[in-house]
Each structure stands twice: as C-alpha cells, then as structure tokens.
Amino acid sequence: MGADRDEKKLLKYIYLLCIVCFLNLTIIKQPVDSGAMVMAAVTCVMIGFSYFVIRRYFPEGDKHIFIFASVLSVIGIVMIYRLNMASSIKQIIWFAISVTGFILTVVILPDLKRFCNLRYLFLAGTVIFMGMATLIGTEINGSKNWVVIAGFSFQPSEFGKLFFVAYLASALKDYRNSFRELIEPAVVVMVCLGFMVLQKDLGSALIFFGISITMLYIATSKTKYVLTCFGLFAAGAMISYQLFDHVRLRVMIWQNPWPYANNQSYQVVQSMFSIASGGLTGTGLGLGHPEYVPINTSDFIFAAICEELGILTGFAIIIIYFLLFYRCMRAAVNAGDNFSRLLAVGFSAMVASQVIVIAGGVINMIPLTGITMPLVSYGGTSMLITFLALGVIQKISEEGR
Amino acid sequence: MNDITKNIKTVMIIFLVLFIGLISYITYFEVFVGPKIVNNASNKRLWVQRNEVLRGTVYDRDMTALTESKRIDEDTQAREYTYGSLFAHAIGYVDIKYGITGLERKYDSELIYSSIKDNIMNFIKYRGELPEKVGNSIRTTLDYDVQKKAYDLLGSNRGAVVVLNPQTGEILALVSKPSYDPNSLDEDWEDINSNADMPLINRATAGLYPPGSTFKVITAASAIENISGIMDRTFEDNGKIVFNDNESLSNYGGEVLGDISFEGAFVHSSNVVFGTLGMELGNGKLKDTAEAFNFNADTPADGVTIENSVFPSFGFFEKGNIAQSAIGQSEVLATPMEMALVASTVANGGVMMKPYIVSQVMTSSGDTVKTIEPGQIRQVISADTASIIKDFMRKVVTDGTGTNAAVSGIEVCGKTGTADHAEGSEPHSWFIGFAPYDNPQVAVAVIVEEGGTGGGLAAKIAGQVMQAALSK
Asked: With b meaning 16 or more CB within 10 Å and e meaning fewer, what string describes B229-257?
C-alpha cells in the first residue's frame, strides 16, 4: 500500500499547485477575481474524482500516467486562464471531456489484441484523416491543417496520429526479418509525411517521423534501418527545401531570425524575448508580458510559462514529460503482446517528440513549426487525442499486470 | 522482438539525451543569448518599463532644460526636445517606433529610474495619492550658447564642430550638420532616410575624414620626440617631392617656401617638409605617436560613442604613402572628436582627458545621485613637446595659415587643414585649436565638408566658437 500513499501525496501536491496558482491569479486582479477560485475548485474536483474512479475500478493499472497528465493539464489551465479567461473555460470543459474519454477508453475498450488485425481499417483511417486537410483544409496561422465542418473546427491530423500509430503497430507486429514486410508501412509513412509538407504542417511531419522511426526500431531491432530512414528523411528534407518556399522560409528564420524580426520571424523573436526576460525564476504569474507573444495560449505557451514562471518551471515541465514518457514505455515492457507494445511505444514517442519539437522550436533551437504542447497548450483536439492515447496505454498497463 | 526490453531501454536513453539536450540548450540560451537580446529595440517589454516612469529631464551645464517629458495617457508619454534639431546628435532621441539613440540610450537606465525617497516624500505630501513617478535627471556638460553658436555658424554646410574643455574633457558642444528634428521623426522619417547627406549620422563622433594638415600636429610631435636637433635644422622647400614617375607631393597651391625652419614649416603648413619628416620617421614611429593619440583604438568616453580613427601600416618601400600619411592624407582617417582631443592634449600639457558629456545625475527633486569626475586617458606627449607645439600653433594664427581664426582680445592657437578626399571636388576645410594661449579653457575641432581651405571657413567658425565659449 506504500505506493498508494505516495500517489495520494502526489495528488495533494497537484491540488496545492492548482490552488496556489489560482489564488495568485485571484488576488493580482483589481477587483479580486473570485472566478479563479471556482476554476481551481472545478479542476481539483475533476482530478480527484477521476483518480478515485481509476483507483476504485482498476487498481492494477499504472496511476502515475494520469497523475503526470493532470499536473501538466493544471499548469496549462492556469496559464491559459491568465492569458485568456474565455479560452480557459473552454479548456477546462475539454479537460473534462478528455478525462472522460480517458476513463471510457479504459472501461469500454475490450482486450486490445482483438484490434490487432484491423490493419487495413487503420490504414484507411490514417489516409483519410491525413489527406483530409489537403483537400478541404482551411489555413490558420500559416498552416493548412484545419478542417471546419458545421462550424466545428479541428485538426484531422491529430486523429490521423491515432490511426497512424495503430496502423504501424498492426503492420509491424509480425515482423520476421524480412525486408519486404516493411515496404508497405514505409510507403504509408512517406505518403503521410508528404501530406504534412503539403499542408505546411512541418511540425506534424517531424512528429510522424519520430513515431515511425521509434516503432521501426522496436519492431526490427535493426540500427541499419534506422540509419536508412534518417538518410531518406534527409533526402526528403532537401527536396522539400528546394521545392517549397515555406520550408525555405522556416530554415532561413531559424538560421538568423533578427533581420526579419518585424515580419517573417516576428513570432519566434517575440517568443525568445519572452523567455529571455523571464530569467531563472520568471517575472511572477500575471506580472510579465506574454501578451506580446502571438498564439500564446497554444503553440507558444511554453514561452509564456517560461516568462512568468521562469525556466525552472520550464525544466520541471520537461522533466514531467520525461517521467510520463518513462511510465508509458514501462507499460510497453510489461505488455503481453507485440501489438500492445508497439501501440504503447508509438503513443509515448508521439508525446515525447511533440514536446521536443515545440519546446525546441519556441526557443529557436530547431526551426519553429507550429504544433501544440500536449496537455498544456490550449486546444480541444490535441488534449482529447493525447488523453485517448494515454487511455490506451493505461489499458495496456493493466493488461500487463 | 525478443530483445524488446533492451530496445525500449535504448529508445528511452535516446529520448533522455534529447530531453537533456533541450534543457541544456535552454540553459545556454538563458545564460548567453538572453542577456544580449532583452535590450533589443523590438522588445516591447522595455518600452512598458520605460513608460512606467515619466522620463527624466536632460539639462545643459547651466540647468537649461533641453528636454521635457509629458504624460499623454496611461500607456504613452511624449518626449519633447525643447531646441529641436540643435541638440539632435548630442542627445539623440527616444521613440517607440524608431528606437533609442545617443545620450538617451547611454543614460536610459538613469532616466527611467525613479528615486524611492522622492516617491515616499510625495506619497506623504499628497496624502496617499500617488503622483506620477519621475525619472532621474541628468546635467550635461553642454553649453547652450556655444552649441547654438557653432550650429548657426555651420549654417547649411555639411560638417561638424566639437568643443571641449581641454583641462577636464567636458564636451561643451557637439554639432553635426545636417541635423534633423527629433520632435517630428514620424513626419520626417522618410525624408531623413532618403537624404543623401544622411542627417542621422553623428559626424562629430562617427564621421571619418582625412584630417589633412591638422595631422601635422601629430607628425610634429613625433618629430620632436624622435629626431634630435630638429629644432635647429633648416629645410629646403622647393615646392614638391617627387617619389617616382607618377607620384609626387606638392605644397598647397604649388607654393614654394624656400629655406625654412621646422617652426616655419609648421606655421606655413609645408607639405614638402612634413612629407620628408614622415619618410625620415618611417611608418613605425609615426604610427606609434598616432596610436598614443588613440588612433586605431577605442577612445574611452562617457555618454558618447566615438568611432575609431585610423592610421594605416605601410611597408618601408611605400615612400609616397608614408609621406602622404604624415600630412594626414593617404589612408589616414580621423573623427572631429579625435582631432579636438589632439588639440586639447597639446593645450593641456600633453595629457589627454577622457571626454564626457554628463557631469551629474540628479533625482527629480534635485538631489545629486552621482557626479562624474574628469579622468585622464594618458600622458600622450611630454609637457615640453606640448609646449613647443603650442607655440607653433599660436604662430599659425598670428603669422601663418590660420589668421582667420584670430579673435581680438584672445590669444588663439590652432592648425588649419585642407583635406583632399575625392578627385575633382572641393577639399574639406579643417581647423583645430584652443584658447587662450596662457591657460587654455577651450579646445575645438571644426570640419566643413568640401568647405575649401582650412584657413578659410573652418578657421573663421573656430575663432568665433571659441570666443563664444570664453565670453561666459
């Protein structure tokens, strides 16, 4: 029961974090903003209830996955509340929906092995969702990766990710040292990357690459395949650099953003100012100026957090992501069958590479590509997808026991 | 897939390395990149900070206000420059759209720092109603009358005037023409930037010109310190030195001075004698003296940034260039500030003082926060050498090329310069000098671009500017 007590302790720290942050937001406003305390209460109740459900009905599973996901969501909700109150209320609703989705995934989903032969269904799902935005997409913030259906806008590539991982897992699960088995998945991956480049969604392209290469290595244990993939990726990157203006632009900004600080590289320059002026401990919640950073609730939320809460908080977030990644990979180790393992590995790699791509992007370590920071950024689709993926991993962790 | 555990470990290690890389890069960014970029003009956070306090006032040495800041609304304040274009280059400007330059930039942190004591006193005085926080003021060493005189005398010419106190290094006037009005940057910005004369350039500290014969002060100093018996020698000036078939050096206007002493050569600005001395000294010795006068090096200064003046290196066989460099031509380039410092070094017994433009930082209620004391740069030449050159420079104004700088009742000393800079255009007109002879209180450098001979326009301006400075 020792582990149980530790989990409860962690949970208490989450409540504390949530209450302290919202209390801060309550008192810095004139007049005092009591709405923030309501937000705190709602968030805490939701986390507590979900934890209770998971522990009560599925005591065998790995509860840390949910705990780490909650910490990140709390930080996100707090920061979004400080930046844009309306978005934050939407975000908390999405948080509720996502947590429900997480629990339902665990409860309703039958044994995952049953899905392992739906390879071509997953393939169809992947291609439909990946291609959707290319055909009927709308351009938002420079990327044509949004689809608006009946006033409801979402990023199909986010859903595509789930199918993509599921497809790769079912395609690679029976790999037996034959190169031929890899041809079909390779073609699918390349088509997906091609779609992403066409939609100017280079961030997603990077993530898909990260996912595929990780799953490939786990399935085949062959370093030479991984190296071949890097070679192909480099060639593809070179070709798209030659072909597409938007790719060249990203690289140009990355190499030296300063000459275009007021136009092309405005976003990343503002983001760098934001992080630089925060320093080690930040300006304090509500006391900085992250409002100068564009898209600050979504793609650039990491910059806003670093400015107000300091890079120490930034480091903490990165470490929590790694812990989450670690717990997810652990589920893969204990999983009973290859399909589940690959699924767990794929989803873990999805979250981890997303973090590296966006955190590295906002600080101009790598070319900036607009994607969300999983769980922290504002965005319903992103949060729901991440929680669904974590739900599948939670399920796998239970099966393994 | 049997080695799954091993593979997962490998993948985990790779991701761990990537995460550590990310954290390391953020650390690197915070330590090395961050401090450099936070002060970038595009960072709006600084403007917010600047706006919290009503910017402090810049005064001249007699406490005449040169700027005035007014609160417009919570988010904006207007900075008015009382004398418009007169002090544009000396003070610079601060504007959310066009950035921050000159003294405004150098003393930005002082001007936006509001004294805590004053705030508390105000809080008590106004019974809890917190009035506007006002930043510290700075009292400059600039003299309105001298600045105005120099500005008016330059008229519509392009050029610059620098006036220093040779004993302290205080900058009394800093004029660069053409100027611009910092009050109407928004309306004039396009004109200012499309103007071929580049009004934004501060010619006084950043304009690099061939110093022409004013450089003979440095050559003379080098000759006195390096060639023994120079004072007793007689030179033969036949009007021209011929180096080879296509290179030669003549006196200005083809003048032939005949048998002449070292002093006479200086007073009448003999290119032949000084070119010969340059070859005799060689590039090395002359360069050493020039570098003692801060050529090829940063000049320490407070409140102004001075572009580095240039003295070139030549091989011993480049006779023509060596001779040309001794009369301030060839590739020699100097700022007006540098040449004013040369004059003030001679005036101050060979000691160069550090130029400074702010004497005092005060709180909004007038308490002194900081006083800037004069500082020496170094003893450039010996007091004896300085005294010899001082006599020479006095003769230039009484009997030589600089008679136009003479002012009745004041013993003015100086050296003219007529600097060729481009084939077919008028030479730049230079004058450097100081006054009075006995106890120099003011040193000056004047350049009028394409203003003809140094003995003409520049000398006249210099004389009257020094008179204005001394009449106080």
From this structure: ebeeeebebebebebeeeeebbbbeeeeb
